[in-house]
Design goal:
Layout (H helix, E strand, L loop, with lengths): L9 H4 L2 E3 L6 E3 L24 H31 L1
Antiparallel strand pairs: 1-2
């Protein structure tokens, strides 16, 4: 007798939930069923809250990233055209 292959890999099986509306398989982070489009309650993660502290950190990190990009751009232009 042949063994059936599992429908999903072991690492994916723990993230599969059954849709309460149609019984289809869906991932635990989905907000709607891919088959019937019914509303699902996401599980397995908590949404990131946009607190003022998080917004401040994002703003500071983006400023630092743009500054690094500008410095690299200046260095590239200097190396290419000045030397």
């Amino acid at each position: 007798m042949e063994q059936q292959k599992p429908k999903y890999s072991k690492s994916l099986q723990r993230h599969i939930v059954t849709c309460p509306h149609c019984g289809a398989d869906a991932l635990d982070h989905m907000t709607s069923c891919p088959k019937c489009k019914g509303v699902l309650e996401p599980q397995g993660y908590s949404p990131i809250l946009n607190s003022p502290a998080q917004k401040k950190v994002k703003k500071i990190l983006s400023i630092i990233l743009y500054a690094i990009a500008a410095v690299l751009l200046v260095l590239i232009v200097y190396e290419r055209f000045i030397k």
